[in-house]
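Can anyone check this?
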Amino acid sequence: MILIDYRDARPIYEQVVQRFKMLILRGVLHSDEKIPSVRNLAVDLSINPNTIQRAYAELERQGYIYTVKGKGNFVSDSGLLLQKYREEVFSQLKTICKAAFEAGITRAEIIESIREGETDD
């Protein structure tokens, strides 16, 4: 479910956060689904439980999961999360496009770059 890339420059907890966010947004993890306990995930990934706890705290702060005392951690409403995430992505895209236009990059060049990115996967 979650894989850690030790060559990635980002801290491990950030990688865990990003992987969970993508699993939730892609519908792999559904609303109100229980996610692994801190201890179980730490054992599965062979990392410190404090790292997982930090990732879960960040996911909860961002609204991707919620905690039920004595029961564990669960996925929040993924429909609302996807809408919010899309709004954030489009906002970032607008900022990037504005910077590109200011640098003299044309609309056609931006579109071509996006098309090339689609085939990179």
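Reply from J.R.: I decoded it. The beta strands are 65-68, 72-75.
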